[in-house]
Amino acid sequence: MRRKLIRMLRGRSLFFAIFLCLFGSISSAQGPVVIEAGTVLVGDGRVMKDVFIVIRDGKILSIGKGLPQGVALDTLDFSDKIITPGFIAANACMDVVKQKSEEGKEVTPGMNLLYAIDPRAEDFDKAWRSGVTSVYLAPGNRNIFSGTGTILKTTGGTLQDMLVRNQVHLKMVLGREPAEGNSYPSGRDPFHLRNRRPENRMGAVFIIRYTLSGLQNKQSVPEEDLTPEERMFRLVLQGKVPLRINARSYMDIRTAFRLMEEFGFRWILEDGVDAYRYLDELASNDIPVIYGPVYKSRGREDFNRDDDRYLSRTPVLLAERGIRFAFQNNDESPISSFREEAIYAVRLGLSRENALQALTLDAARILGVADRMGSVAAGKDADLLAFDGDPFEPSSTLSGVFIDGKHYDPNK
Amino acid sequence: MRRRFLYPRLLAFFCSALLFFPLLCQAQAIAVKAKKIYTVSAGIIENGIILIEDGIIQDVSAGPEVPWNVEVIDHGQKIIVPGMVEAHVARGYDVANETNALTPFVTVLDNIDTSHDTFALALKDGVTVLHVMPGNNTILGGKGAVVKTVGLVVEDMLLIPESGMKISVSGTPSQTRMGVSAQLRRYFSETKEYIAEQKQNAREEEKMVSTPGSFRSPERVKYESVADLLKGRYKAYVYCQGPSDVVRAHNLSETFGYRSVYLLGPECYKAADFIAEKKLDVMLDPEFVYFERDPLTEEVNKIDVAAVFHRKGIEFAILSDPDRAHTRSLSYQGMKAMSSGMSLDEALKAVTIIPARMLGADNLIGSLEKGKLACFSVLNGDPFKLSTNVEYVYIEGKLVYERAKDEELQKLLEKKIIE
Q1: Chain B contact for A346 (CB, 8 A cutoff)
Q2: How far is CA B303 from CA B307, B313, B325, in A?
Q3: What b/e readout covers B26-48, taking b as 16+ CB neighbours within 10 angstroms?
Q4: Which terminus in chain A has less CB density within 10 A, N or C?
Q5: Is residue A132 situated within a structural domain?
Q6: pLDDT tens series, chain B, 419 aa
Q7: Could you tell me the residue range of the domain that residue B63 belongs to?
Q8: How far apart, in whole angstroms, are the C-alpha atoms of residue A282 and residue A286?
Q9: Domain of residue A211, residue span
């Protein structure tokens, strides 16, 4: 009798298991989802019409005209929408960290912003609701080497779930920002806590030379004898971690080129406000530029009015020279208006293909994560946006967001 | 010998001058032709002509008879829309507010800087009329003026010199809402007493033949402009930061009997039902999208304010703020209103006839119809498209802006780089 019961239960459990399999694959977000897309802007310039995008486990399984046999279960109808890859802010300024700079020292390459980020901050919601699915966040501008940045998805649970890659680029800041407000008063103990160098641009460059040449002299020292900070610099000098140089003014860009010749590192120009003055050098050395915001209100103190015209035209000039570039925002333009940067660049003459590429694939390439995101292709993360119309027309609405295959409604 | 020939020539000149004199007088009449005319009041007219005489529209229709002596300007395949109207701007001068909170006697006429960016930028965007107002950071801020966007001195630009009183009921950093309300009520009550006193004086003045006028008395300076408001000479433009401010401001205007237009902060979408019920005149904050965090669940909600008001069937005017990229111009705001679900027609109304009605100037501006001022812009495509440019702007029948001759824009768009 006991055996009979067990057999009966087994039979039932088999049914139950089959039922669970079927039901589970329909209802859970992890199962395959099919998006019936009207138009897909792939991100690399290609356009696909009337295709099916199959998503499984947060990745794009396939994209094509026909449906793969035996997996299609849940079809989402986006046949009247335009699908694009999720936008990537290659240098995001967001209100997700209270204090972005570690100001005790001027050289802090060991700092990692990841541990200071509040994943529940409102700016993450603003970001994904306006189409930004991934952001690069880095420490502030008050240090010369201020630490390494992090790539995060803008929603999806805990910080661990959102994390794409940590310690991506080492940030170096040229110009007056690390020196602002520093002082070295005479009579005080030179090692006093409140004394901070550098006091000006040349002081900053001196500290960079001092740090990097010190590392060059230690080339024969084995890895394990180095401090963690020195190990980071070694990775930079070996070219394994790119240096991201924040150089706003043209003289700082000049300095960056000079340092590159001296130390031979690979670098990326961040906040390249004056990049238009060095188009030839940037193109010949294959240096990517992160630029933004494109729209600037008038009368900013930093720049004279004569320069304004070039500031806005910079994306067009970069695209003409074939220099890889991506968009960023700063404290003047909220992350919720990130799409507007590209819209304004399009208005000033940038082609829509170039603008989309700068928002997606080129940003991913600059961040070194083009294998995971940046275009609608099989094997990549399912970070997709669905627009009602042309994504570069302000009158069209963002009506759907997919991050890691999960469907969100941005208008709630 | 020479002189003999001079007289006939002079005579001929005078004769011809006399002959052509009536023509010279009529030289102000023009006819503007375009592929499409968005009249706002009477739909779209294909291949229409606008007949203009002395800056005033005489006729807008598909095929009116153009008198032989009228100059015809043919814009070919271009599209004409009415000049846009921005019903509240707190710019066009250096400082938006007085530091004193109760300054109803000041007027922006003394403050407007005609060479300020605001006017040139607005003109390039196709905005022909601006309502310049004091800023939000006062209680009784002063009087505004409705101006055209072109002119060397304020007098050239003026459309309505004293157009409204700026009021804010939302409190300042140093004052609570109850303090602000109390001060407003006190000021209005005092003004009422002042008006009654004036009436009394006027009766006495009738009896006595000569009384010295009281126009220089400090009393008069203090109360006259608020008295004008209470007498209904102009409207109040009331800034409301939150939904409760709308109700409070409405009650105040009911009590003291003045007409109001409400400038809403983004959170005021919560008062949408009240606004719909009372049929209030409202202008939306330039920021259409409002993010709000639920204090209990900590969930962030995105509210499309324009969509909320649109769904409730409330007509509103749209404003812009050039300091921020995503609200930078009125046409851009129109595009965004369309992304909030408004049709092209509705979005166009929200930047033309609706603000004109709120300013009480819908007999002059806001649409293209007979008797109104000929303020319009000529576009190279449909309105509220990113690729559309403003090619020409006409104000009162005069060509005041030409894109091809806009030096600043040419510099911006030229490809050359200086070394």
Answers
A1: yes
A2: 8, 17, 19
A3: eebbbbbbbebbbbbbeeebeeb
A4: N
A5: yes
A6: 455 555 666 556 565 655 555 544 445 799 999 999 999 999 999 999 999 999 999 999 997 788 888 999 999 999 999 999 999 999 999 888 888 889 999 999 999 999 888 898 899 999 999 999 998 888 999 999 999 999 999 999 999 999 999 999 987 777 899 999 999 999 999 999 999 998 888 877 666 554 454 455 677 788 999 999 999 999 999 999 999 999 999 999 999 999 999 999 999 999 999 999 999 999 999 999 999 988 898 888 999 999 999 999 999 999 999 887 788 889 999 999 999 999 999 999 999 999 999 999 999 999 999 999 999 999 999 999 998 999 999 999 999 999 999 887 777 676 554 43
A7: 28-83+366-419
A8: 6
A9: 87-373
**B384/A392 CB distance under 8 A:** no
Q: Which residues of B touch A352 (CB under 8 A)?
A: none
Q: Which residues of A touch B413 (CB under 8 A)?
A: 313, 348-349
Token readout for A56 is 């499984």
* B266 plus B406 within the same structural domain: no
Rounded CA-CA distance B150/A1 in Å is 100
Number of domains chain B is built from: 2
3-state secondary structure of A126: helix
What is the CATH number for A39? Answer: 2.30.40.10
Q: Compare all CA atoms of chain A with the CA of B387 and give the residue at the minimum distance.
A: A347
**Distance (Å) from the alpha carbon of B334 to chain A's nearest alpha carbon:** 8
Tell me how many domains chain A contains. 2
Kindly determine whether residue B386 and residue A392, on different chains, have CB atoms separated by under 8 Å: yes
- Distance, in angstroms, between A73 CA and closest chain B CA? 31
Tell me which of A395, A397, A399, A409 to substitute to probe the interface with B (most B C-beta atoms closer than 10 Å).
A395
List the single residue in A297, A310, A336 with the smallest CB-CB distance to B289: A336
The DSSP secondary structure of B161-228, one letter per residue, reads EEEEEEEE-S--TTS-HHHHHHHHHHHHHHHHHHHHHHHHHHHHHHHSS-----TTSHHHHHHHHHHH
Beta bridge partners of A338: none
- Contact: B417, A340; criterion CB under 8 Å: no
Check: CB of residue B378 under 8 Å from CB of residue B79: yes
**In chain A, what residues touch B326 (CB-CB under 8 Å)?**
333-334, 336-337, 340
Per DSSP, A252 falls in state H
CB-based contact B326 A317, cutoff 8 Å? no
pTM of the entire structure?
0.86
On whether residue A314 sits in a domain, the answer given is yes
Structure tokens at A75: 């079809």
Alpha carbons A56 and A31: distance in angstroms, whole number: 6
A 117-156 residues inside an 8 A Cβ radius of B: 120, 122, 125-126, 129
Q: Are A273 and A293 in a shared domain?
A: yes
Contact A122 B293 (CB under 8 A): yes
Residues with Cβ < 8 Å from A229, sequence gap 6 or more? A107, A108, A109, A110
Q: Chains A and B: how many Cβ contacts under 8 Å? A: 77
User: How far apart are the CA of B25 and the nearest CA of chain A, in angstroms?
Assistant: 43
Q: Are residues A82 and A201 in the same domain?
A: no
User: Is residue A304 one of the residues assigned to a domain?
Assistant: yes
With an 8 Å Cβ cutoff, are B302 and A410 in contact? yes
Same domain, B246 and B257: yes
Chain B residues within 8 A of A395 when measuring between CB atoms? 335-336, 338-339, 384-385
